Amino acid sequence: MTGPVIDVAGIVFDDEGWEEYLLGFARRAPHYLRVFERRFASMAGISAEEYRRVARRGPEALARHLAATGRLGTDPDDHVARLAEQGVRHQILLGAPAASPAGNDRLAAFAARHPDRLRAWAGLDLRHGAAAARELTRCVRELGMSGGTLVHFMDDADPLSAASRSVYETAARLGVPLWLHVGHNLSPVSAVDTCTWRHIDVIARTHPDLTIICGHGGWPWVLETVAVCQRHPNVYLEFSTYRARHMALPGSGWEPLFAYGRTTIRDKVLFGSVEWAHGRSVGELAEEVASLDLPSSTVRRWLHDNAAAALTVPAGHESPGALAGERRAV
User: Which residues form the Amidohydrolase-related domain (predicted)?
Assistant: First the structure.
């Protein structure tokens, strides 16, 4: 068993939320629907042949077809029961890139069913300029969301633009963290380095009170991302979409994280899942982290304690069995 887990990168929606999420890829980064063909087909319960046949009608048709299967969405009660069985004491639900206000409303309502176990962070669309900052304010003040999500390459947005700065300023003023997609992306029409450690360093220097989570760990610029985490008290990284068993392979590029993640940034590494990308549960992904050649104290920090401190989640020391028992007793 891994001990308690806090997941800072949950991608969990109802059926409508999944449709919006997939349409975001279809309209702004359709290559993702090709790269993750096997995963999306498996999730939707359709064959590769059906997937490709529908894809020939266009990416939006494919996104709608996948969502229409009714197999992607999840029920909040069932989802939380699974988390409890896996020892996950808390999960951050990241808003969809380019989420609409209605999409944020639905995600907030999903998390509100179990506020002790779930928190929702707003999906923000920088293509609408200053509206993104207003949407963050609405989501925090009216919906009870506790953070925001930015994916600059999906919005064709400069991380240092005026629209981006307005979101950073708003988040700092509201006292909520931001999750940023940091590192390479798989969209051949976007710059591979749309948002990297260089941008994070500038953002952190300009907004020192803003808590920033570098989503996906900044790969392949891991060493540089580690250096930025060393420099700035409020900059953290998480490595969702990368499996620990693959990260541990020689030449993976993650060597700096294992070198400094147990020393100078041992309090800056968080755990994120993005289950759909792996076809593995949060608990299974956490077990892979626990199997790394790391001190047990470091594993505990990465999987739980760092997020508990950075995001003010009550620390707790329940075992996975106790968490599951707590769920059954409700």
Answer: 94-311
